[in-house]
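User: Hey, my collaborator sent me this sequence without any context and asked if I could get a structure. I don't really work with proteins. Can you help?
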Amino acid sequence: MRLSRIVRGAALTATALILASGVSACGGGDDAATGGGGGGVDKAALISKLKAEPDYKDVPDTGLDCLAGVFLKYGDEAGLKAYVEGKDKLNDLQAFGASEAQAKIEAVKCAT
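Assistant: No problem. I've predicted the 3D structure and written it out in structure-token form, which is a compact way to encode the shape of the chain:
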């Protein structure tokens, strides 16, 4: 019982951090989500990079997979690619912009 509250709390913390740091609203599109075509961001690489973040270390893999999907769906491909390649930090990414409300809804679903 206590462990599930800790895990859920960690997931909610991760969601809040995503929404606080955000990503640019230019939109990564489906290519970014699948890592296909045009040098898109690889989802597995993004998840691996998120796992290395101290604030995400206790988030379960399923939560990270879901949150990475939100990043890829609403994020700027160039910004995410720079983050995955280590050129930018997570906090350097910009806000969701016009897609912020929908991104929040989907990120909260990741934590539940």
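In plain terms: Helices lie at 2-21, 29-34, 43-51, 61-74, 77-84, 100-110. You can pass these tokens on to your collaborator as they are.
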